[in-house]
Write a structure and sequence with these properties.
mainly alpha; 5 helices; three-stranded parallel beta sheet; 3 strands; 9% strand; globular
């Protein structure tokens, strides 16, 4: 979750945190499930409707692997919904839907890279060529190309701006 927050903040992407209590009010064009392991059947049904309405979904890690009682599911209904027979190594889902699955979890990788490189890069005032810069670009590309996400307002700024 923390790494995904960093990605969203440092790509200057508008976002809303969605919980089971706020789900009904969510009207965004893209939803990110950053390793959301526990999903109940009602949430899976809602996600199916969301995807079928032409909205974008990025799932990562073990999203949907457990039910609301933290019991591991024999078959992950989210992966079935995403039509992934073998989710390991899958990158995007066929069928024209705006769906992407990242088993590694882009937020985790980004958080690790930021912890290793961010301070030195910020001190130098240069982030090009860093691993976190590459991960930022990959994330932006996933939002744009795989999910078809087009924000109403685009902010082009250094990732250092969010921490100043």
């Amino acid at each position: 979750f923390r790494g995904m927050m960093f990605l969203l903040l440092q790509t200057h992407t508008e976002f809303q945190i969605v919980t089971p209590r706020t789900r009904a009010d969510f009207a965004g064009d893209a939803l990110i499930l950053p390793d959301v392991k526990c999903l109940d059947d009602a949430e899976i049904a809602w996600l199916k409707d969301y995807i079928n309405a032409g909205k974008g979904l990025l799932a990562s890690g073990e999203s949907g692997s457990y039910d609301e009682c933290r019991q591991r599911r024999e078959v992950n209904p989210l992966q079935r919904l995403l039509t992934m027979e073998d989710p390991v190594g899958s990158d995007a889902v066929p069928g024209g839907k705006k769906i992407a699955y990242r088993p590694d979890g882009p937020g985790k990788a980004y958080y690790k890279a930021v912890r290793q490189e961010y301070n030195a890069a910020a001190y130098a005032g240069k982030y090009s060529g860093t691993e976190f810069s590459r991960l930022l670009e990959n994330f932006s590309r996933t939002l744009r190309d795989d999910l078809g996400y087009r924000p109403a307002v685009t902010v082009e700024a250094s990732p250092f701006v969010s921490s100043q």
